Amino acid sequence: MLRGGVLPPSAGPAVVGAGHSAAESPSTAAAGGAGGGQQGAAAAGSAGHPLPGTGNSQACSSALRKPAISLADSTELRVLLSVMYLLVENIRVELETDPPEWKSCRETFRTELSFPMRSDEPFALLLFTMVTKFCSGHAPHFPMKKVLLLLWKVLLFTLGGFEALQMMKVRRREELGLPPLPEDSIQVMRSMRAASPPTCSIELAEQQQKRGHRSRRPLMKQDSLDIYNERDPFKNDETGVDEEEGDEVDGGIEGELDLMERDALLPTIPAQRPPIERVSFPKGLPWAPKVRDTETLIGLPRPIHESVKTLKQHKYVSISDVQIKNEEELEKCPMSLGEEEVQETPCEVLYRAMLYNLPQYMIALLKILLAAAPTSKAKTDSINILADVLPEEMPITVLQSMKLGIDVNRHKEIIVKSISALLLLLLKHFKLNHIYQLEYVSQHLVFANCIPLILKFFNQNIMSYITAKNSISVLDYPHCTVHELPELTAESLEAGDNNQFCWRNLFSCINLLRILNKLTKWKHSRTMMLVVFKSAPILKRALKVKQAMMQLYVLKLLKIQTKYLGRQWRKSNMKTMSAIYQKVRHRMNDDWAYGNDIDARPWDFQAEECTLRASIEAFNSRRYDKPQDSEFAPVDNCLQSVLGQRLELPEDFHYSYELWLEREVFSQPIRWEELLRYQ
User: Fold this and answer.
1) 65 CB burial (10 A radius; 0-12, 13-18, 19+)
2) Which residues make beta-bridge pairs with 291?
3) Quick check: helix, strand or coil at residue 587?
4) Where are the membrane-spanning stretches (predicted)?
5) Cα separation of 637 and 632, whole Å?
6) Domain total in the chain
7) For residue 375, what is the DSSP state?
8) CB neighbour list of residue 579: distance below 8 Å, 6 or more residues apart
9) Side-chain-side CA neighbours of residue 121 (13 Å)
């Protein structure tokens, strides 16, 4: 069985579009070369959708009658999904040496996956349906890890990664006549430096008591967080870490990541060298400032009062603002403006196919994410995500038990990685396609408790999670296919690999933080949810991971809620405030650093959420509702004609008909009085 899902240090967690393992990014040789990939593309295109066949229905019916599901129940499906995964990933990866014929085959394969060919739905929708069937209990034998990995790679291939998304965003702004972007956010984040984590107030008090001979110093001006500076402002008073992570010191992941970042920019430095002058770098902040409102001058310094021109020069109009304005005009003048011309992109096709079952898709993904979270406890009513990792016979030796334990933990980590990556891809692409598509997905994620779920995920020893070694390198693909397998021992399994970090888990953490940012950005009611669930100390602990991109999104989440945390919190966390100032984009007229709104409550902003929901429903109704579903269409009220209509039932319904009868008919009480009253 292929062991995919390990993110090598060379790839890094920079973007979702990057390859993450030898198993998930197989080399051309491993898949039979470029020619083999082309033949695979043609074979995949001619095969259609092979998963919901008769054999699968029989396996589903057999699995429903079993008390426990194991690997043997999904053998054929796992082989099919592995083959399709290798096909998609091998064809997806572009090389400069690809011949023109291979590029043409790649685009043909991309089109076949993106648009309905021999069915009424794109291939990604079939995989989403498999996820919902698994969560509903109709197909408990589905190998969810492989389904989710294939779904992620299909979305990555058909919609495009973050670099492709950035180019689409630039083209869309040109089409709308908007000024170009002030910077490339991907490049800015790649050049940012990680900062040392701030200490908590309890630690500072203890350290002050230990240093009784020193006088209490006032608040000092903070230096730059750049590694070239002589002092690190976060290390002035820091000697330890949080109480629940007392066994971890600065030397672990933080020191190693810091060394890796230094090595990326600096040549090899000898142990001893004569002192040289300090390298000077241009001062400035990494992000260009933005402003959304040029009508008010509240909070701006006096020089800007004298020259509003400076403010208007930084006015940023997003694609979303233009889309919202156009939608308002279409709602006001539907007859005069006519129908909107909608471009048939892969993202638009996918949203239209997902629209009416999208809440079920989001709930199913969050259910699996909850079951795979390391902080979740096993419950009898939770779904079984280990069906494709547990063997038929349980282990009987210590070595087998250790191997199974590593497999189970690794299995959960890969599921978290794939769900977080595909959710982030959907949110980013739907936002570019139309802002209300993003808002529709976001609302259903919020209604399904996605915000507390992500916070629960981070409410753990995040350093231990990122340094976890749930991998057996000699069994990883393609190592296991090109090398002889050594004899595994309990000592070798306990030692793990030589990697200091698990990039797979770091990748998942960054994705979840970005999803949380997408859900809460410019939404006061959702920001208040962060405050109510006491996310500030949870997020501050995540700053201990010295990785610049992860720290950036943690600081963004802290920035949007500082005005609700009060002046005392800001006073006690000045180093965090300084890091926010230096690393997060500045919004003119934003009172995050001095505003106070500690009396606000979530229900104070419910009107905003209701207004947004009304706008989303109006958008979906105008663009996607069929004409016969309108209020002017005739309605058939005849009981005989309605009951006489022939309905097309899915093929697997016949195999689960008895289960459906038991659940929907026999177990439901019949209220005869109400039935007779309507006769």
Assistant:
1) exposed
2) 315
3) strand
4) none
5) 15
6) 1
7) T
8) 195, 198, 225, 234, 543, 551, 555
9) 14
Distance CA 386, CA 390 (A): 6
User: What integer is the mean pLDDT of 291-296?
Assistant: 69
Question: Nearest CA to 429 among 154, 218, 222?
Answer: 154
Would you give the DSSP letter of residue 666?
I
Taking only the tens place, the pLDDT of each residue in 470-528 is: 888 888 877 888 888 888 888 778 766 777 889 999 999 999 999 999 999 999 889 99
- Classify residue 89: in a domain, yes or no: yes
| Terminal Cα distance for the chain, rounded | 60
Query: Is the predicted pLDDT of residue 157 greater than 90, yes or no?
Result: yes
Residues forming beta bridges with residue 290, ordered by sequence position: 587
- Give the range with max mean pLDDT: 337-346, 451-460, 618-627: 451-460
Residue 663 DSSP code:
I
Give a yes or no: residue 121 inside a domain.
yes
Cα–Cα distances in angstroms (integers) from residue 138 to residues 68, 221, 363, 387, 656, in the given order: 14, 62, 16, 14, 8
Q: In the prediction, which pLDDT does 632 show?
A: 55
Residue 642 has pLDDT above 80, yes or no: no
Q: Compute the mean pLDDT over every residue in the chain, rounded to the nearest whole number.
A: 77
Specify the DSSP element, H or E, that contains 351.
helix 346-354
Q: 234 with 195: CB under 8 angstroms? A: yes
Which pLDDT does position 312 carry in this prediction? Answer: 74
Q: How far apart are CA 296 and CA 213, in angstroms?
A: 51
Exposure of 313 by Cβ count < 10 A (0-12 exposed, 13-18 middle, 19+ buried)? exposed
Compute the CA torsion angle 462, 466, 467, 470 (nearest 10 deg): 120
Q: Is residue 207 part of a domain?
A: no
d(CA 616, CA 133): 27
CA 231, chain centre distance (Å): 35
pLDDT at residue 186 in the model: 83
Q: Name residue, tokens 């492989």.
A: 146
Measured distance CA(238)–CA(199) in Å, rounded: 6
pLDDT digits (tens, 9 = 90+) for 589-608: 788 888 877 666 656 667 88
> Which residue matches tokens 């949810």?
529
pLDDT band, very low/low/confident/very high, at 127 (cuts 50, 70, 90) = very high
List of residues 6+ apart from 149 with CB closer than 8 A: 4, 5, 24, 85, 414, 418
pLDDT at 257 over 80: no
Phi, then psi, of 182 in degrees rounded to 5: -65, -25
Amino acid present at 250: D
3-state secondary structure of 555: helix
Token code pair at residue 570: 């800001």
How many angstroms separate the CA atoms of 23 and 473, rounded?
A: 12
- Asked if residue 456 belongs to a domain, the reply is yes
Select from 313, 312, 322, 352 the least CA-distant residue to 169: 322
List CB contacts of 419: < 8 A, sequence separation 6 or more. Answer: 148, 365, 368, 369, 372
Count of C-beta atoms within a 10 Å radius of residue 262: 13
Q: Say which residue, 184 or 408, is predicted with more confidence.
A: 408
CA distances from 653 to 56, 65, 404, 563 (A): 13, 15, 35, 54
